[in-house]
Amino acid sequence: MNWAGVKAIWIAEMTRFFRSIVQSMVSPVLSTSLYFVVFGAAIGSRIQEIDGISYGAFIVPGLIMLTVLQQSIQNAGFGIYFPKFIGTIYEVLSAPLSAFEVVLGYVGAAAFKSLIIGLIILATSFFFVDITILHPFWMLGFLILTAVSFALLGFILGIWANTFEQLNLVPLLVVTPLVFLGGSFYSISMLPEFWQKVSLFNPVLYLVSGFRWSFYGMSDVPVEISLIAICVFTLAAMAVIWWIFRTGYRLKS
Asked: Which of 93, 241, 252, 70 lies closest to 156, judged by CA?
């Protein structure tokens, strides 16, 4: 295991993160605070509680998931796309690093950055609402699994994209709508029966539901299914990355 190579990638990615600290950390926290103000004040005044939980506290897990998913994809996607864009990807590929070590460096750094932002948002939310975390171990576990799995997805998108527009296409047009429609700001039990069934096809629902269970012990789907879903997604993303390095898809062209 070439830990020196993994460390070099990790440090380079973390340096870029702290170099643009306002864009990387302050901006997501401010955006989430605005969500609290808008949703908590406007909608919270109309929806007092959901299953015995105040609306402001209910949306906290969804807001954290929204930010962690977006940041994981963006950090990992840009992290591998930029070396492709400027041509330094060939230096990485020719270095004495295995595919696993390259992925560990880029994805590990992206997931770690997203985890930091998620925890900061969690700490910030205590200034707005009263939060109870019934299962802190599982909360952290779901947060790490989500950050890693979507960082893997971002890594795939970074390799697939040929332009910056393509790099932002999936997060903007696919992931963000899925998060908003995945029970981040409501319980699917509030929907008509037909739309409840449709929501079950949204993979993000299982992430948000499992994460919310770790806070309040309530979920829209069984927590076991949520855990299985995120593990399957992670393994599928790892399989795609293995295929990319095996075939050289958009890496060696």
From this structure: 241
**What is the distance of C-alpha 153 from the center of its chain?**
9
Q: Which residue has the tokens 């929501």?
A: 199
Q: What DSSP string describes 169-206?
A: HHIIIIIHHHHHTTTSSS-GGGS-HHHHHHHTT-HHHH
CA distances from 89 to 83, 142, 158, 159 (A): 5, 32, 12, 10
- Cβ atoms of 77 and 174 closer than 8 Å: no
**What tens-digit pLDDT sequence spans the chain (253 residues)?**
788 888 888 888 888 877 777 666 777 778 777 777 777 666 656 666 777 888 888 888 988 998 899 889 989 999 899 888 888 888 887 888 888 999 999 999 999 999 998 998 898 888 888 888 999 999 999 999 999 999 999 999 999 988 888 888 888 888 888 888 888 888 888 888 888 888 888 889 999 999 999 999 988 899 999 999 999 999 999 999 999 988 888 776 5
Reported as half-sphere exposure (CB side, CA atoms, 13 A), residue 176 has a value of 10
